[in-house]
Amino acid sequence: MKLRELAHTRTGDKGNRSTLTVVARDAKDFARLETQLTPERVKAHYHGIVEGRVERFSLPQLGALQFVLYEALAGGVTRSLALDAHGKTLSSHLLTIDID
Amino acid sequence: MSKTSIRIGAGAGYAGDRIPPAVELAERGQLDYLVFECLAERTIALAQLERRQQADKGFDPLLADRMRAVLPICLAQGTRIISNMGAANPLQAGQEVLRVAQELGLQGVKVAVVQGDDVLARLLKDGLNLPLIDSAAPLSSLQEQLISANAYLGADALLPALQSDAQVILCGRVADPALFLAPLMHEFGWAHNDWTPLGQGILVGHLLECAGQITGGYFADPGYKDVPNLARLGFPLAEVQADGTAVITKVAGSGGCVTVATCTEQLLYEIENPARYLQPDVVADFSRVELTPDGPDRVRATGANGQPRPDTLKVTVGYHDGYIGEGQMGYAGPGCVARGQLALELVRQRLRDAGLDQLETRCELIGVNSLVHQAQASTEPNEVRLRVAVRAPTRREALLVANEVEALYTNGPAAGGGASKSVREVIAAAAVLVPRDWARPQLTVLEQGGSE
Fold first, then answer.
1. Does B273 touch chain A (CB under 8 A)?
2. What is the pLDDT along chain B (452 residues), one digit of tens a residue?
C-alpha cells in the first residue's frame, strides 16, 4: 500500500537541507515503517531532487522518523529558482512510496 | 510575584500571519504573555534596505495594525506583548507603538526596546575572515554585496526588558523560541545554566512559534486528516508549569484541533538532529519528548532536556545576489503538455542563440513537474503552465529571459495565454558564527509623553 495510508508527513527547510517528518498514524505500524523507510530508499524516491546524503533519526515514543535531506533545495530558500523554494510540497511526494 | 503556571499565546507565526486569531487569543486566552514572531531569514535584510531609503522605517509594516487590534485588550488584562517586529529598527518600532497608543487614547504605555543584534560594523572590522557556514568561502567573498548582519540573541537578552514595567517588549533578531523562553525564565527564575528547564522552555517555544501550524494549520488532508472549522483556525497557547512541562491548547470554541498528531508534526518541524537543537540559550534535546492527550484539544508536552549552550552566536548575513527573471505561459485542452514542452524547447533554443544559455535556468510545466521536478504526467492534465526562471547578474539579462517567454504569444505554439513575467532582485542569506560578546544587548524604555 502507499505510505499515505499509514503515515502523515511534513517538510521544513534549514539552509539547503529539507527536514522531512514521517509520523505513523497508528503506533503498531511504526516498526515496519522504520524497517522499510531507510535513508537509501528515501534518497532514491527523491532522485533528482536530493543531491546530497539522507540522514535519519528515530523517535519510537512518538512513532516518528525524522529525515534530513542534504542539498535538496537548490541552494536554499533565499537563492533557489524553484517555485516552491522551501520545498514544502515535497512532503506529499513521500506519501506515494510503497510499503509492504 | 512568582506564579505556579504561566499562560503564553502565539499571536503570529510569520510576518504575514492573520490578525483575527490573535485578537481571539488576546480576548479569551487569559494570557500572561502574547508573542508575535514575525522575522524570517532575510526579513531583516529587506528591512535594512528599507531603512536606508527612509530612516524612520525598517520595522514590520504590520506592526501598527497588530497593535491596534490587540493593545487595548492586552493592557486592560495585563497581558504583556513580546515581538521581534522591531526588525531592522526596533527604536522606531517602539515609537510607532506609542503613536498607536496615543491614537487609541491609551495612557501609561511603555515599550521596552532591545537592541544589540546588529553586528554588521563589527563583522566588517574584525570578521571578514570568518568562514561562511555551509560554504568553503570566507565572509570577505560577499563583502561588496553585504546588506546586513544580525546575531540571533537569546532569552537572556530579553530578561532586562521583562524586569522593567513595560507592557510591550520589542526586539530585532532573537532566536524564535527564545521569545517564549524569556518570559518563562523571568517568571520561574530559571538560571542561565538550568539546562533541563531551559530545554523544556525551548520545546514550548518551538511548539508555539509557528502559531496555527500546531492547531490544525498546515495539516489538513481531506479524508485522511480532517480539521474542524479550519477557516476560523485558532492560534495556540501553552499552560506552562515551573518545571517547564506544558499543555498546548487553544481558546475553547476556536477552529482547528490540537492533537498528538498536530503536535508531533510541529515538534519535528525544521529540526535536524532532535537530540541537538542548537539555540543561543541551550542545546535542547527533544529526542525523548513525550506528547500525551490531556483532554479535548489539549496535549501535554514533557521530556525535553538540555545541554550547555554554544560558545558562539549564529549571525545571519543578508547580501545582494543578482536577479531572478521569470516568465510563465498557460496552455489548455488536448495536447497542452506537448505544446508546453514545445514552447520550452523554443525558449531554450532562443536563449542559446542569444548567448544566454550559460545562465542557471529552470524550465518546467506547472501541473506536471514544477514541484517534484523529475515527475512525468501520469494522465493528460486539463491545463498546464510553462515556467522558465533564470538567475542573472544583471536586471537586463533577467528581463531578456522573461521577455522570451512572453514572446511565445506571437512566436510560439497555438493558444498560449495568460502570460506573466517578473524580475526581482535577489536578497540572499548566509551565516557565520561569532564570539558571544560581539553582540551586546541594550535596553531602552520608551514612554508616552516623549521621555525615555
1. yes
2. 457 899 999 999 999 999 999 999 999 999 999 999 999 988 888 999 899 899 999 999 999 999 999 999 999 999 999 999 999 999 999 999 999 999 999 999 999 999 999 999 999 999 999 999 988 899 999 999 999 999 999 999 999 999 999 999 999 999 999 999 999 999 999 999 999 999 999 999 999 999 999 999 999 999 999 999 999 999 999 999 999 999 999 999 999 999 999 999 999 999 999 999 999 999 999 999 999 999 999 999 999 999 999 999 999 999 999 999 999 999 999 999 999 999 999 999 999 999 999 999 999 999 999 999 988 888 999 999 999 999 999 999 999 999 999 999 999 999 999 999 999 999 999 999 999 999 999 999 999 975 44
The DSSP code sequence of B354-384 is TT-TTSEEEEEEETTTSSSTT---SS--SEE
Reported ipTM exceeds the 0.95 cut: yes
Q: Which residues of B touch A61 (CB under 8 A)?
A: 288-290
DSSP letter, residue B18 = -
What Rg value do the Cα atoms of chain A yield, rounded?
13
CB atoms under 10 Å from CB of A53, counted, come to 12
Q: Tell if the CB–CB gap between B274 and A59 is shorter than 8 Å.
A: yes
Q: What are phi and psi of B116, to 5 degrees?
A: 120, -5
- Give this prediction's pTM: 0.97
Q: How far is A35 from chain B (nearest CA, A)?
A: 19
